[in-house]
Amino acid sequence: MLTGTKRVDAPGLKGWLAGRTGRKGDRTFRIRLLTQAFWAAVSLLLGVQLAMFYRAAQAGSLPLPTRPPGVEGYLPISGLMGILDWVYQGTLNTIHPAATVLILIALAMALLLRKGFCSWLCPVGFLSELLARFGRWSFGRNFRIWKWLDIPLRSLKYLVLAFFLWAIVTMTADQLQAFIQSPYNRVADIKMGLFFVELGKVGTIVMGILVLGSVFVQGFWCRYLCPYGALLGFFSWPSPTRIARNADPCVDCGLCDKVCMARLPVSSSRNVLSPECTGCLDCIAVCPVTEALEVRTVGRRRVSSVLFAGALMGIFLAGYVGARTSGVWSNEISDQEYVERIPDIHSPAYGHPGS
Ligand code: SF4
Ligand code: SF4
Is the dihedral of CA 305, 221, 264, 159 positive or negative? Predict the structure, then answer.
């Protein structure tokens, strides 16, 4: 059964929790953790820069420090609107161009590398994994919601996505422009930042439920509620890469099923093609047998973890550098305009145009 393969000491679930993989020299898990930590740090830095920008604009001290365009990654709806507006107008809007660039980068990643964005770059996914890890450390395990409840709950994220897509695609070109140019949208990035800083009672309760849910159920937000992940799932369907299982060396230990955060039946699949697969490669990291599980292309070419991570970074860099060099990364809202608008940001004039 193991002919031609190298059987090594299986670290089991404990080894996976400790960040060790099933094969000597295999660094899948650590590479992912480092990548996630890097993007979480970048995210934190963007948040700090935005806070400094907000403070300076509030005080009216011109010139303002740099507003980091990368924070528009937290405006996926604006990004999607930007795509449709681009189709209507023929040019990318100058209010939140980075939001559109970043969502296009994530969609390109999904098209080529499944939902690798979720498991390797997304800071929310990273936080969610840390909370689940804390849950396992505290209670010895994460819990799995009953199947009869899990299926309808999983469909929630697709419903939320359908709602947003419907709201966007039913807008005319003029309505879309009116929204993009609205006072609300012009400062939407700052409003998003303030939402987390000034959480009200309802916001705190909702956040508390999400945090607790993520401690007990791995990937609570991502699995059930995240419309961004749902969108990436659709784009990951035709992806040429997938987790491929080789039945010959597989020893049916079932570890891959146990660690799969998407709860997919990896140990009984030939290829994992589900839109729920987040491309985390944890199943590969935990598998004790060389060549039993690998990332492969449709042409059966092997993609190493390093190459997988490198390709994700490459797509990001290509999109980012391309946007910067073609002048569509930073917005064209002047410092003066921010200084005039920000003191009134809590007034009804800056409410959501649809509300
Ligand atoms: S199948 Fe493997 S790569 Fe996909 S989500 Fe499950 S553990 Fe991660
Ligand atoms: S593919 Fe899954 S079941 Fe087979 S050896 Fe690897 S971890 Fe065990």
Answer: negative
User: Measured from the CA of 259, which atom of ligand 1 is nearest?
Assistant: 7
Q: By the 8 A CB rule, do 215 and 135 touch? A: yes
Sequential pLDDT tens for the chain (355 residues): 333 333 334 455 566 555 555 555 567 788 898 899 999 999 999 999 999 999 999 999 889 999 999 999 999 999 999 999 999 999 999 999 999 999 999 999 999 999 999 999 999 999 999 999 899 888 888 888 898 999 999 999 999 999 999 999 999 999 999 999 999 999 999 999 999 888 889 999 999 999 999 999 989 999 999 999 999 999 999 999 999 999 999 999 999 998 898 999 999 999 999 999 999 999 998 888 888 999 999 888 999 988 999 999 999 999 999 999 999 999 999 999 999 999 999 999 888 887 6
Nearest ligand, CA of residue 295? 1
The Å distance, Cα 279 to ligand 1 centre, comes to 5
Quick one: how far is CA 66 from the chain centroid?
A: 25
Question: What is the residue with the minimal CA distance to atom 4 of ligand 1?
Answer: 277
Residue 272 CB–ligand 1 contact under 6 Å: yes
- Can you tell me the distance from the alpha carbon of 235 to that of 244, in angstroms, rounded to the nearest whole number? 19
Tracing tokens 């079932």 back to the chain, one arrives at: 254
Range of the structural domain that residue 76 is part of: 29-240+305-328
Among the bound ligands, the one closest to the CA of 268: 2
Whether 283 is in a domain gets the answer: no
Is 95 part of any domain?
yes
Residue 311 domain-assigned? yes
Q: What is the DSSP letter of 346?
A: T
- Position 321: which residue type? V
Query: Number of folded domains in the chain?
Result: 1
Residue 38 token pair: 């890097």
Shortest-distance atom of ligand 2 to CA 286: 7
- Looking at the CA of 267, name the nearest ligand: 2
Q: Does residue 256 have its Cβ closer than 6 Å to ligand 2?
A: yes
Q: Please check whether residue 288 lies inside any domain of the structure.
A: no
CA atoms within 13 A of residue 181's CA, in its CB half-sphere: 7
- Which residue's alpha carbon is nearest to atom 6 within ligand 2? 287
